[in-house]
Amino acid sequence: MMKLEGVVAFVMTSEAGSISMAARRLGLAKSVVSERLAELERTLGTTLIQRSTRKLSLTGSGLTFLPRAQRILREAEEATSELAARSGKLVGPLRISAPVGFGILHLGPAVGRFLRDYPEIELSLELDDSFVDAATGGFDAVLRHGAMGDGRLIARRLASSRRLLVASPGYLDRNGTPATLGDLERHSAILYSNRASDWRFSALENGRSRSDGGWSVVRPRAALRVNSGLVMRDAAMEGLGIALLPTFFVHNALASGALIEVNIGLQAEGAELFLAYPKDHGAAAKIRAFGDSLRRSFGTPPYWEKP
User: Fold this and answer.
1) What per-residue string of b and e applies to 150-173 under the rule 16 or more CB within 10 Å gives b?
2) How far apart are CA 201 and CA 209, in angstroms?
């Protein structure tokens, strides 16, 4: 008889691209995942995955079986969620991906609150700054800050964050404080390497961004490019240059005076925080509960936006 745990191992390995990554996401030893795959192949009487020292690929049988295996898991999750919802409980696994910096700064207390409210949910949280496809990445939901334009997904807005130009007092003492876009172009910048290095600003009217959608773009000179918002913040605090960062990275540094906001009279493009997941997902009830719990933990407005 085919065991569900073998199907889980096969689907996760196919989506993750390696047995090691699948084991990591499942919280299991690599040897356990390998044995479950081997047992599934013995049960089906065919090889599903072609293994080599350098790469892993699906056989013809594996490609045929994969969509059916994914459907088996979706239906099993939907059945479990439906029964749990009828009994007033949320139970079982929930796999979430989130950005590294935001996770380190803000998700520890929020996750603790969620698991105290829903102790029967088995939460797996993986922090990753690379792009994770919420539809095919092997997660139930992905926490992102930035634009969402994927028609395959439901995106629940969790919180907002402004992006601010910030620099250390020492840097501004040595180099002066820019007051215009032209001034800004002559300064050293700390840039995030995983997105376009342009800085986009909208003019303000009565303290708010203009409604015509017009943007002014600055292409600053890079003193440092790095794929971590936390390293950007720390580099700015060390006086390496000016950084454009969401308030959820810099609110404490601004409060302590380690960083100073650089005001050039323009509003930088914001950073909305979303929880994204595929439509008709079997774990939708758990995902909604997780999103609601995060919103309560962050507050409205979120605590990083409060004076």
Assistant:
1) eeebbbbebbbbbbbbbbbeebbe
2) 9
Shared-domain flag, residues 80 and 29: yes
Closest CA to 198 of 207, 186, 189: 189
Q: Give CA 7 to chain center in angstroms.
A: 26
Q: Minimal CA–CA distance to 203: which of 216, 190, 192?
A: 216
In which residue are the tokens 């990083």 written?
304
pTM of the model: 0.69
pLDDT tens readout for residues 203-247: 654 444 444 456 788 888 899 999 899 999 999 999 999 999 999
Q: Is residue 298 part of a domain?
A: yes
Question: Is residue 274 situated within a structural domain?
Answer: no
Range of the domain at 5: 1-88
d(CA 134, CA 126): 13
- 168, part of any domain: yes
Q: Is residue 25 part of a domain?
A: yes
- pLDDT tens figures, 22-52: 888 888 888 899 899 889 888 888 998 887 7
Contact (Cβ atoms closer than 8 angstroms) between residue 145 and residue 276: no
Based on the domain organization, do 3 and 79 belong to the same domain? yes
